[in-house]
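Sample 3 of the quickstart, ligand magnesium ion:
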Amino acid sequence: MKDGAKGPGPDGNLPLEPPPLPGTPDMPVHPGIDEFVDKDIAAREAPEKAKGEYIMEAEGLQMYFPVTKGLFKRKAGDVKAVDGVSFRIRQGRTLGVVGESGSGKSTLGNCVMRNLRPTGGKVVFDGQDVTRLEGKALAAYHKRVTMVTQDPFASLDPRMTVADSVLEGVRINRLADKAGEQALAERMLLMVGLNPKYGSRYPHEFSGGQRQRVSIARALAMGPSFIICDEVVSALDVSVQAQVVGLLQQLQQQLGLSYIFIGHDLSVVRYLSHEVAVMYLGKFMEVAGSDELYGHPLHPYTQALVSAAPIPKPSVDRARPRVSLEGEPPSPIHPPQGCRFCTRCRYAEKRCREEEPALKDAGGGHLVACHKVTGG
Amino acid sequence: MAVQEGEVILDVQNLQTWFLSGKHQETRLRAVDGLSYQVHKGEFVAVVGESGSGKSVSALSVMGLVPYPPGLIVGGKVLFHGKDLLQATDEEMQAIRGEKIAMVFQEPSTALNPVVTVGKQIAEALRIHNPGMSKKEAMAKAAGLLGEVGIPNPEVRARQYPFELSGGMQQRAMIAMAVSCGPELLVADEPTTALDVTVQAQVLDLLDRLRKKLGMAVVLITHNLGVVARYADSVKVVYGGKAVETGPTDAVFEEPCHPYTLGLLRAVPRLDLPRGYGLHPIVGEPPDMSKVPEESCAFAARCRYATDGCREGRPPMEEVGEGHYCACFHKGETLEERRALP
Ligand SMILES: Nc1ncnc2c1ncn2[C@@H]1O[C@H](COP(=O)(O)OP(=O)(O)OP(=O)(O)O)[C@@H](O)[C@H]1O
Ligand SMILES: Nc1ncnc2c1ncn2[C@@H]1O[C@H](COP(=O)(O)OP(=O)(O)OP(=O)(O)O)[C@@H](O)[C@H]1O
Ligand code: SF4
Ligand SMILES: [Mg+2]
Ligand SMILES: [Mg+2]
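Result:
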C-alpha cells in the first residue's frame, strides 16, 4: 500500500485501518494457496497489463426523481438517486458496484443503459455521449450495451419459448433472417452452457440458475460489447451462483466483454471485478482495485460493509474486527449536509458535517471521499 | 463452540414428507426423505443445502403447515418436549404455533397484511394468545416490541402500513411479531436473503440477542455459509431431503467429512483470501427428488469420491467427532482434501 493511503489512527477507537487481511502483501497466507487460486484472474490483475482502451466514461452522472405533493402535484423536492458519479471502464474489464439497498446502484445501471434519461452529467461510450440519444441512435446503442437483472422470472415472458425470448431484441432490430435466427438462438444457448434443443421449452421448465443463463443468452444475442449485470446472482444458491459467475468470467475472457457488476455479496462482486466502487446515497465513497479495496478499505463505510460480511470459516471470522453500522441510511431526498455518511460515521467531526469531502486519490489510484483519510 | 448440553426441545426423527401427483398419486416426490436432527434449548442451529433440497418443506413439516394435497407427511416423528406434533390435533397445533414455536418467512411482504398497520398486526397476534389483554395494552406492548427489535420511533412506526417500512424494517417487524409471545423455538426460513449485508448483520445480531435474552432456540435456514459460520452453534447439511452431515459449526466447517459439505464450502469465494479463490460449482444438478434411488448414496451421481459401494448401499450416519456425524463411505478422503485447502 502507498504511504499516502494510511489513515490517521483515531483516538481510542478501532484503528481506521483494520489489520491486513491474509493474501495481501503484508500478510502471506497458507503456503500452498497458489494452487487453489485462479491464475488467470491474478494475471489480469496488474493495471499495466490492461491494454484495453476506456470503453465507457461517465462524468458527474446525476439522476434526480421529482417528488410531488398534494392535489396539484406541486414539486416538493427531488430523490437524488444518483448524485454526481464519475467512473471509467476499460474494455474487457469489470467495475463492481456495491452499497446498501437504496444507494442508487440500479438507478446508475439504468442510466448507463439509458432505460432512464439522466438529469445531468454524461456517459461517453466508445467516444459518443449517449445521455441524449433517441430513436435509431438509441436502438444502435442498445445493440452494444445490454443489461441482465436479478429476477429471471420478471425478465422472461412465461408465454414465450426460451428461443423467442433470446431472439426478441434481435427480431425487433431485424439483425438476422429466419434461417439465421434459429442458428443464432442455438449458438447463444450453447454459449451459456445450455442444451441448444432447450430453445423450444418455456421458462417454468428451468431451474433458477438455468433461467439466469437464458437471460444472459438473451443479453448476448445482440452481440454487445458491454453488459450491465444488476444483482444477477443474488437469488441463486451457492453452487449455481458459482456456475453463473464462472460463465460471466469465461464470456469476458472469450469475447472481451466489459461489465458493470452490481451486487450486495461483497465476496462475489470482488471475485468478478477488477475495480470496485462503493456507493452511498447516490455517490461513490471509495473506488479501488478489487484486492486493494477489500484488503485495505479506507472509508469508514467500506470498513463497515466489509466487516458486516461474514467469512465462511469460523476461526477466521471470529478473529476479524467487527465495525457495526447502526441505523438506516438517511433519505435521499434530504441527504445530510457535509459528508453524506456523517450521521452514521463513528469518526465524524465538525468539518465532516459542514463540508462535503471530494473523491480524492489516497495513493496508487485508490480513491476515497473522507476528510479523515485524505485530510486537507 | 462446545457440544450442546442443554435439554433437547425438538427431536425430529426420520421425517418423511412427500408430494404426490399423477392420476393415481403414483409420482412421489420425496422432498424430505428421512431427516433427523435435534435442537437444544437456546441453541442456534443452521440448516444449509442447495435449492430444492427440502429445507423449507422440513420446516413446514415441523410447523404442521405442509399443504395437503399434494403434500403428505408419510413417516417419522417431530417430538417437541417429547410430544409428537405429527399426532397433535389442529387446535393443539394452533396453540403451539406462535406461542411455543414461531416462524419467520423469507418474504415479509407475504406474511404481513398490507392493509393493516404493523402495530395492529402484532397486537392482534398478542391478543390471540393472551385473551385477557386489552386492545390498548396490546398496542402499547406491540410498540414496545418494535422498539426492542431496533426500529426507531416505534410508536410512530406501529401506526404505519408495511409498505411504509423498508425491507429490513419489515423483516424486523416480522421478528417482533414472531417473538411477541416468547416462543421457545423460532424457525427462520431465509430471513435475510433479500437484505443487503449491513441490514442482514443487524437482523441476525438481533436474532442472536433475542435468543440469548429469551433463552429461545433458533433454527435458521440459509444459503449463506458465512452467516452460518458467524452465528450458528451447530449446522445440519441437507442433501436430497436428508441430513448428510451434522455437528458443531466449527467441526463441520473446519473439518468437513462429507464431499457435499466440502463442495458447498468450495463454491463460495472468500473475502479473506486472494481474489480468484473459491467459486468451484458442485458438478451436475441437484437430484430429481422423485427419482432418487432408494438404495444408494443420493450424492453419488455428483461425487468425485463415489465408488461402486456408494451406488449399491446407503452410507449410514456415523459419529466422526464429538457430536459430529456424517453419512459417507469416503470420509477420510474428504477430510484430507479439506486439510490441504486454506
Ligand atoms: N422511478 C423512481 N422514482 C422515484 N424514486 C426512485 C425511482 N427509482 C428509484 N428511486 C429511488 O432512488 C433511490 C435509489 O434506488 P435504487 O433502486 O437505484 O437503489 P439500489 O441501490 O439499486 O437498491 P437495491 O439494493 O435495493 O436494489 C431509492 O431511494 C429509490 O426509492
Ligand atoms: N407445494 C409443493 N408441491 C409440490 N412440490 C413441492 C411443493 N413445495 C415444495 N416442493 C418440492 O419439494 C422439494 C423441496 O423443496 P423446498 O422448498 O423444501 O426446498 P428448499 O431446500 O427450501 O429450497 P430453496 O433453497 O430454493 O428454498 C423441491 O423439489 C420442491 O419442488
Ligand atoms: S458416500 Fe460416496 S458418493 Fe456419497 S458422498 Fe460419500 S463418497 Fe460421495
Ligand atoms: Mg437495485
Ligand atoms: Mg426454501
